């Protein structure tokens, strides 16, 4: 067994500072294996910790004890397991004379409302999390000037000689701005020696006059700024300038201010009442500086940053020859230094503060417009790594687009880190929505949920529930997110989705992730070329964030890894071992630069029988100017890997943008790695996940297509275990029909259908009889239909339809939102077990036959099995159809809040609504 003894100094400092996120080589974590019946009982009735939580926007902190209690009960009744208290500003431009009195964050009055919330949540068996600060990122009016956000800003102006060049440089005359550098460079720079400092030419009134020789030049104006950003949507008491996240003492002072105010109210123990403290995404645009950055840079990198700084910040600078490589290296060193400082001075102190206060840390490592760490390094620290998901926002991944749901990038990095660090919970800010607030259906929400499970997410924090008292009027206060609200027509049916999501979350929280392939991105190259900009991270190489999905279609599970993982892993029997995870293959994606320690880790991996596929290129240089002398070492190690182990190393060119899935098939055919699931008919919209709970194997398969059935044979490497289907909608389970081989099943997934298979080692049973519709024995329900409409605004009306139609196209009904009850009397020539197929329904259908409720269908095919339809009898069929809120809000032209969100929607016409049919009854046969 071999492991790397020399770890990166960055990681050493973090460990010395108290970071607890690194597993030592050889440590193996396991999930406890509950007895089958205990496990299944909790699946049927999941605990609150597995149920979706709400991000509970405390709009404007206009909160009262009575309304807090009312809303908690409302959320609980529909299936929520907890809330995240999230104070945020109220958009007063949308609401005239809003009720309530705004309370200041951490004031005595506000703290008492927190106490009310915690006490009531305890009575309701609900979990409570809390965001640090209000809005995002952390900040407040109470910060001292030296504690607020800092940055250096570069402006580049063109100048041409020969002749006199005049320009004006206006820098505010205050303590928050300072000219750092004023330098003239030739248009193409080949050396630092070409820089001319012209600061002394700047007059007091801001006028700059330069006598230029012949040629083209660029004037670099570098300005230091302080307090230049305010908290986004900060609520009273924590609005104002953003905190300097690179200042550890300021960070700790801010955190201690919060715990110091709340602990006395909560009996001195935050953790007794609050599960986790939460840090939202890192929105620190422009923050690239702190008071001691240059000193820290010199300490860590062994040279001064200042001479290179203007060129490092100008990614468009024209640099010639070896000097271009030098500036690239300095840009990497600056990026690495900022990432180290951010981790040491913000992420780790936040995590440690949570531990001191007996709460868990919950953290989103991504942000805009920069990623302040390699995402994995950021996600390895917290107890609960959290990602995000957007509806009606496809994100950045070329081709890997599923009905405008953004799901792939942050989710996979959060789950990879959670797997590697052995975290039980990987959460997601789910259903974030700004372009379809009133248009999101429960079916769409289910589809997004299934994608989260596929990505490795096992808990949802919904975005969100708005604190909005009844007197706020319709549609109430809305800050962000999908409209989870009692005014939504589908609210009475929300419990169906909550139970479904909770059952899946429980199973995947209480089981061990499985993965075969590790993917290494080219972070050093992106930091060298672009700094911490997140866009290249998302898009380069173009296939990086499609690769895990393409492999998933073919039956392989993957995680992303980075230098931290490889340098601290152990290698044994051809596998990469880190924490509870093991990987049999490493894919290295278009990497040209690699740290020497990382290259040495690859060498050790190969030496222990590992296998590597280099895609697009092999590393040939070390990044950074500080370690440029490592170039020869990197080349020597990589050549040893390449030439010494040809049977273990594969080279392949990267895929064309539109050929990733086809190319991935060739990739896996060049390896001897067997899939986790063999799928006879792979499809680009077929996904799966696999985890283990003791001796149980758990597989989740999902069809993301809306208009096509996926049918295939699947072989699962589970030995002689008995396959069961656990129905996440109903909580029921039953063994599956199989042939001689228990681990081979024929799978048929209808559009948007997902299935949960649990392979049990010691539990057998009789499969349920299978019935199917006889499409030749059919009766069409032709009407007439009496329809009673109950609008969300309380109005009622009745109509009669001879034929079914989309009522959003009918005069007087185009803006209806609510429930329509269709009633029809029929005498069907069929009897016994039959299938009632409602055809197309927009959106939710509930069926009552002869006064007996048959059930609710809120996604997929609206089909209902009638066990025993009496022969020769006249039947009363009632179909209750609930549509979306969008059409009504579209009509409220004078309602500023409704129009604000409707106007953001891409759809501008009423959406289809009602029972469209055709409604048919089929005989069923076994």
Plain-language structure description:
The protein is of the alpha/beta class. It has five domains: 2-29 and 541-669; 122-144 and 243-513, TIM Barrel (Alpha-Beta Barrel), CATH 3.20.20; 150-226, no CATH class; 678-768, Golgi alpha-mannosidase II (Immunoglobulin-like, Sandwich); 774-925, Galactose-binding domain-like (Jelly Rolls). Helix content is 26%, strand content 29%. The protein is built from 21 helices and 45 strands. The strands form ten sheets. It has an eight-stranded parallel beta barrel with strand order 2-3-4-10-12-13-15-16, surrounded by six helices. A six-stranded antiparallel β-sheet has the order 17-27-28-33-30-31. A six-stranded antiparallel β-sheet has the order 36-35-37-43-40-41, with no helix packed on it. The longest helix is centred in the middle third of the chain and has 35 residues, at 322-356. The chain is globular. The model is unreliable at 1-30 (pLDDT under 50).
Strands, helices and their partners?
Layout: E1 2-3, H1 9-16, H2 36-44, E2 53-59, H3 65-77, E3 82-88, H4 108-123, E4 127-131, E5 150-168, E6 177-186, E7 188-189, E8 196-197, E9 207-226, H5 248-262, E10 276-279, H6 293-301, H7 309-313, E11 318-319, H8 322-356, E12 360-364, H9 375-379, E13 384-391, E14 405-406, H10 409-421, E15 427-432, H11 442-455, E16 459-466, H12 494-509, E17 512-513, E18 517-520, H13 523-530, H14 534-539, H15 544-553, E19 558-561, H16 563-568, E20 570-572, E21 575-578, E22 581-583, E23 585-589, H17 596-607, E24 612-615, H18 631-644, E25 649-652, H19 660-669, E26 678-679, E27 686-693, E28 696-703, E29 710-715, E30 722-726, E31 733-735, E32 744-749, E33 754-760, E34 772-781, E35 785-791, E36 796-801, E37 818-826, E38 832-837, E39 840-842, E40 844-849, E41 852-857, E42 863-869, E43 875-882, H20 886-891, H21 896-904, E44 914-917, E45 919-925
Parallel strand pairs: 2-3, 2-16, 3-4, 4-10, 7-11, 10-12, 12-13, 13-15, 15-16, 18-19, 18-23, 23-24, 24-25
Antiparallel strand pairs: 1-20, 5-9, 6-8, 6-9, 13-14, 17-27, 20-21, 21-22, 26-29, 27-28, 28-33, 29-32, 30-31, 30-33, 34-45, 35-36, 35-37, 37-43, 38-42, 38-45, 39-44, 40-41, 40-43
Helix pairs in contact: 2-12, 3-4, 5-8, 6-8, 8-13, 11-12, 15-19, 17-18
């Amino acid at each position: 067994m071999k492991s790397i003894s020399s770890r990166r100094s960055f990681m050493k400092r973090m460990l010395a500072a108290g970071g607890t996120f690194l597993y030592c080589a050889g440590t193996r974590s396991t999930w406890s294996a509950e007895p089958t019946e205990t496990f299944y009982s909790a699946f049927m009735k999941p605990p609150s910790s597995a149920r979706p939580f709400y991000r509970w926007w405390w709009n404007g902190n206009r909160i009262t004890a009575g309304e807090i209690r009312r809303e908690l009960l409302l959320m609980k009744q529909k299936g929520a397991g907890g809330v995240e208290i999230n104070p945020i500003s109220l958009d007063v431009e949308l609401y005239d004379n809003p009720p309530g009195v705004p309370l200041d964050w951490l004031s005595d009055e506000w703290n008492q409302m927190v106490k009310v919330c915690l006490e009531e949540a305890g009575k309701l068996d609900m979990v409570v999390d809390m965001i640090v600060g209000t809005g995002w990122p952390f900040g407040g009016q109470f910060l001292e000037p030296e504690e607020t956000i800092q940055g250096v800003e570069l402006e580049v102006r063109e100048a041409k000689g020969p002749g006199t060049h005049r320009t004006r440089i206006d820098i505010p005359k205050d303590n928050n701005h300072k000219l750092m550098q004023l330098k003239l460079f030739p248009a193409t720079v080949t050396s630092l020696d070409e820089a001319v400092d012209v600061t002394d030419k700047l007059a007091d009134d801001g006028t700059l006059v330069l006598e230029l020789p012949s040629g083209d030049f660029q004037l670099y104006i570098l300005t230091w700024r302080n307090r230049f950003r305010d908290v986004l949507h900060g609520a009273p008491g924590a609005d104002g300038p953003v905190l300097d996240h690179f200042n550890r003492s300021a960070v700790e002072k801010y955190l201690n201010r919060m715990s110091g105010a709340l602990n006395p109210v909560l009996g001195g123990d935050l953790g007794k009442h609050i599960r986790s403290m939460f840090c939202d995404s890192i929105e620190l645009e422009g923050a690239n500086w702190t008071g001691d950055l240059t000193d820290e840079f010199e300490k860590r990198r062994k040279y001064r940053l200042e001479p290179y700084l203007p060129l490092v910040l100008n990614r468009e600078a024209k640099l010639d020859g070896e000097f271009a490589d030098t500036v690239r290296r300095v840009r990497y060193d600056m990026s690495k230094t900022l990432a180290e400082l951010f981790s040491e001075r913000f992420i780790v102190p936040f995590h440690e503060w949570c531990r001191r206060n007996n709460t868990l840390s919950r953290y989103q490592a991504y942000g805009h417009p920069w990623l302040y760490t390699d995402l994995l390094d950021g996600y390895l620290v917290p107890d609960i790594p959290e990602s995000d998901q957007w509806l009606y926002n496809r994100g950045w991944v070329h081709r890997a687009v599923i009905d405008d749901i953004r799901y792939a990038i942050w989710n996979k990095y959060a789950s990879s880190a959670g797997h590697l660090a052995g975290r039980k919970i990987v959460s997601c800010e789910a259903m974030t929505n700004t372009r379809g607030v009133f248009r999101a259906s429960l079916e769409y929400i289910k589809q997004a949920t299934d994608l989260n499970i596929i990505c490795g997410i096992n808990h949802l924090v919904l975005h969100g529930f708005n604190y909005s008292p009844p007197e706020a009027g319709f549609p109430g206060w809305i800050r962000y997110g999908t409209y989870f609200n009692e005014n939504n027509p589908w609210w009475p049916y929300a419990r169906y989705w909550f139970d479904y999501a909770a059952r899946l979350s429980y199973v995947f929280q209480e089981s061990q992730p499985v993965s075969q392939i590790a993917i290494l991105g080219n972070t050093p190259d992106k930091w060298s070329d672009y700094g911490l900009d997140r866009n290249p991270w998302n898009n380069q190489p173009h296939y990086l964030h499609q690769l895990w999905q393409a492999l998933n279609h073919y039956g392989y599970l993957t995680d992303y890894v980075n230098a931290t993982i490889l340098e601290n892993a152990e290698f044994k029997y051809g596998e990469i071992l880190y924490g509870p995870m093991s990987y049999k293959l490493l894919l290295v994606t278009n990497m040209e630069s690699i740290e020497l320690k990382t290259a040495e880790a690859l060498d050790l991996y190969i030496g222990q029988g590992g296998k590597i596929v280099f895609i697009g290129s092999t590393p040939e240089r070390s990044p950074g100017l500080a370690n440029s002398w490592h170039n020869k070492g990197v080349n020597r190690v990589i050549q040893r890997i390449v030439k010494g182990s040809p049977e273990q190393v594969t080279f392949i060119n990267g895929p064309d943008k539109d050929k990733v899935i086809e190319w991935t098939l060739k990739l896996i055919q060049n390896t001897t790695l067997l899939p986790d699931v063999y799928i006879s008919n792979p499809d680009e919209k077929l996904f799966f996940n696999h985890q283990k709970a003791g001796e149980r194997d758990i597989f989740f398969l999902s069809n993301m297509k809306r208009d096509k059935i996926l049918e295939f044979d699947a072989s699962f490497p589970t030995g002689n275990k008995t396959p069961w289907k656990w129905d996440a909608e109903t909580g029921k389970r039953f063994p599956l029909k199989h042939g001689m081989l228990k681990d081979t099943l024929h799978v048929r997934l209808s559009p948007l259908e997902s299935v949960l298979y649990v392979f049990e080692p010691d539990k057998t049973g009789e499969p349920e009889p299978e019935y199917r519709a006889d499409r030749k024995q059919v009766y069409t329900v032709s009407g007439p239909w009496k329809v009673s409409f109950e609008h969300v605004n309380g109005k009622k009306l009745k109509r009669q339809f001879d034929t079914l139609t989309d009522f959003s196209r009918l005069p007087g009904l185009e803006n209806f939102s609510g429930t329509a009850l269709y009633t029809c009397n029929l005498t069907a020539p069929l009897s016994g077990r039959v299938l009632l197929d409602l055809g197309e329904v927009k959106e939710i259908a509930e069926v009552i036959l002869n006064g007996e409720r048959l059930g609710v269908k809120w996604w997929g095919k609206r089909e209902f099995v009638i066990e025993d339809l009496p022969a020769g009898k006249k039947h009363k069929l009632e179909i209750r159809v609930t549509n979306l809120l969008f059409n009504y809000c579209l009509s409220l032209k004078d309602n500023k809040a409704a129009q604000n969100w409707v106007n953001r929607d891409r759809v501008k016409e009423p959406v289809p609504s009602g029972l469209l049919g055709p409604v048919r009854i089929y005989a069923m046969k076994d």
